[in-house]
Design brief:
By secondary structure, this protein is of the alpha+beta class. It has five helices and two strands.
Amino acid sequence: MTLASTIHDLLGQGVVESVSIGDEADKATWRVKFKPVATDAEKATVTARLAAFDLATYTANEVTVAEIARLERQQTMRRIREAIRGTDGGWLMELDQRIAILRAGLR
């Protein structure tokens, strides 16, 4: 998972379209592109959260939690229906195992 996708997941709120990171060590090069539906208040909240983000204190657990959240979002109704029908080739079981391994590694 890249820093940009991790930050995108953390900022989320359904108003962030994308995040780009120029130099990881220089926040001045970090950019957030908002969805057209984003209100000024939502933009301000996201901007404040980004400003408060401290890369130096960002722990491995936070990265793992963001990765778990990303994987859990892949568990769609269609995927569950395919698993019930047995037509997913074991995809859902494999995904659940990956999530369980990540959760076991949390401190």
